[in-house]
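hey so i finally got around to running the thing on that chain from the lab meeting. sorry it took forever, my laptop kept dying and i had to restart like 3 times. anyway pasting the input first so we r on the same page abt which one it is
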Amino acid sequence: MTDHRIDLDEREERPQLTRSAALSDYLAGVIEDTEHLVFGNPRGIGQAARLRLKDVWIPQDVTVRDAGTARAEASPAQRRVLDQDEPIQIDAALNMRIFRKAVITGNPGYGKSTLCARLAHKHAVEANQQGRGWIPLHVPLRMVNQRGVWSSLEDLLHRLPQIHDQAQRTAILDANVHGYLWIFLDGLDEVSTEALSELRRRMEVGPLASANRVTLTCRTADYWNARPLRRLDGTPVLELSGFSEDELDLYVENWHVHAGAGRTAQIRQRISRTRRLLDAHGDLRELAESPLLAAVVCIVESQPREARMGRAALLRRAIDHLLAFPEWRRGGGRDLEQEQHVDRDILRRIASRLAFRMLTEEGALAISRSDVRGFIAGQLVEQNVVDGSDEEDLDEAKRAYFDRLVGRSSAGLMQERETGWYEFAHRSFQEYLAAQYLIWFAERPHRLRLAGRTEWREVFGYAASIVQVSGQGAGDLLILVHRLLKDADPGLRPPDDAEAAREVAERACLAAEMLAEFGVDAARQWGLADALSGTLEPDTDDPAFAGLWPYAVRTVLRLAERQDLPRLVRMRALCAVSRIDDPRLSTEPAGVVARLMEIPGGRGQVGTSRPLDMREIKKTPSSPPLEVTVRPFRMAGFPVTNREYAEFVDAGGYDEPRWWSGSEASRWQAKDPSLHQELVELWESQKELNFVKEFSEAEFAAYNADKSTRIARRTMDRDLPLYWHDSRFNLPTAPVVGVNLWEAEAYCRWLQDRLRSLDLIGPDEEVGLPTEIEWEWAAGRRWSGTARAYPWGDEFDDTQCLVRDFTEAEPRIIHFGAVPVGFTRIGLAPDGPEDLAGNVWEWVSSLNYPWTDPRDREARGGLDKRVVRGGSWYSRERLASHVSFRVEDPPCNAYWDLGFRIVVRRRL
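ok and heres what got predicted. didnt touch it at all, straight out
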């Protein structure tokens, strides 16, 4: 496999421009308008105080989500990159002819608009200084909501404030004739339903049909949602990545270096402090994958901070900064001594009510200047800040609060995106503020109605976080939770209509997720400990809400068991139960032993005569049939879960050398630098085999791009599983992932010692990983006389395992991350060990030798590859769930879809 970047030499040749004074003036204006960060400046938004984009920004990669017409136009080398679904350097991709027309999608706050600004600035500088390249034209698409769709390019140019006179319009129209424009159509997701159809038609006959370069941006979810349709048939789609760990670290360094006003030592302290905060809180590091919120982390962390900070606290402090610290402007605005007094509590309340109002009005993102001012005036009178009959006082107060809200005398929670139209700096801020109003001020029936709207799911999660911190509104929160659960009570007759049943189930899932977000510690802290236990249905007249947590678990667990509900809803239900308290799996040693299943021994056949084809380079041939004799053993019913592995972590397992047997394992536990160097060399020599599909993800691509200097996190410098703090992979009863072979074996030795000390296994029994033959013997029921090709039978059945959807040309991920163990057969009687196919790959102890090889396949130690089995939610292999399918990995590797399970066997 070659490098994971498209060669810059394949870029399209830049055109030679005809210079004119009007064009130079226009390009100079673009350069001035796009030179600085729009958001993330430590000292407000005054021109002199802002950070330069090129000093701070870290361009992300993109992945081709839909090649569209690019595939037909691509060279053979480019086509290979498209087919391998690998990350591409954004500048390299957009400079290529095959992406002359392209849509950039990304999650909220991932920097789509900043990308447009950066590219516009780059090409304006190039065109102005060298007289070559493309002339950038930035079009914020939200403007069509107020002014309608343009009828022609000339009409569009008259609407853009950055174009000042007819001479500039003429220069741009002339460039359009030659195809020299680079048009950035920014914010397709912000176009109203009413304007969308006409805008699509105008783009298809206008910019998309022209010889110009065109780059559109849209939120990922909005682009692929069919209600309404925003997709543009045939136009390539490039998915923008968030910051990888390394990119985030570099962004933090750049920001503090260029924002800091202190000495070098102080700046380094701030960099170190911010990185420690991100390392200590996995949820913040995940949140900071968003470049906008990475800036918030830097801004907030550069100030005195709370001892503990989570997601809700970060947003609260960020909002306080954006609203309430005019001193950060350092002279960027009017004299602060002369500024009208603004009550910060009133200002926050106004922002909260405004955010709620905008979201309830069909998810409005933008609001006019006059509406903002009118809303502020109404709130000031309603809250008795000023006397409404005194027009002069009201006008002065309205101006002061408006200036603070939109950044004229603060950093700015809202920003003017188009003349006279304002929106929140990020939707997360709007959703957090709406959550404040939802839980503290909204009427109960209104809350109940909003709970049925999918777009409010995040808001309700924030609401639970807010209540967790303050305790204010806890009663109302739990009343809402109870009502949503009551509708889905397993004792009630479910709705006959499938869609109604799905909606009721999703509302109950939301209730459980809110309880999980609120948490048991907060329940105890705020006098609600009785809600954590009990068996009776909770009574909403009971101020203690006795039994609410168990009631939520029972109700939502029953939803996970209902086969008539959509699979994704059932997965969501079981994930919510796992976050609260999954009652199915005790971590008590006796419970661990009780879940062991007897696997009879005997003489039988393993392997297969059927060729098992693979898509990827990482191939381990399936074994031809082989007669083997297997001794009886016991196998765990499920892979080891995060909750079970936490017992090992809490017992100091990573600090106890006796669990780490063998040269490599003990050196890894001791963080031996010489082993680190060996692992670096191993990585470099085998990465193209071991990380084929993973390099399509920005996280893995960063390791590849940075060679050996950035792999310490993965290979050595950790005392926890690699994804231990990552909310995508750390559900308590989901399989533990991100563990290498040595970690899995250390857990087995610790567990063996624990079970022996309690007389739960005999002194002649050992706990370990299954051998490859034991794993296949159990998965395929080889002892039974009716051997199976899959753990459930002879035909593939995607309802029996969590794998990708292989019905489409490009296998689609069903659920990003493993789900709690036992999902596929939840509610059914056990039929042997479960999850042997899909969910996560599983380490086995065997070396990857052919089964007929006389060498010892169970030899301990060394860096030779070991076998992994079973397939996963992330695997691209259609046949990975076949019981004879084999893949190999070096013992040091750790992945987000690789775990393990235990066996107990008698010693020979």
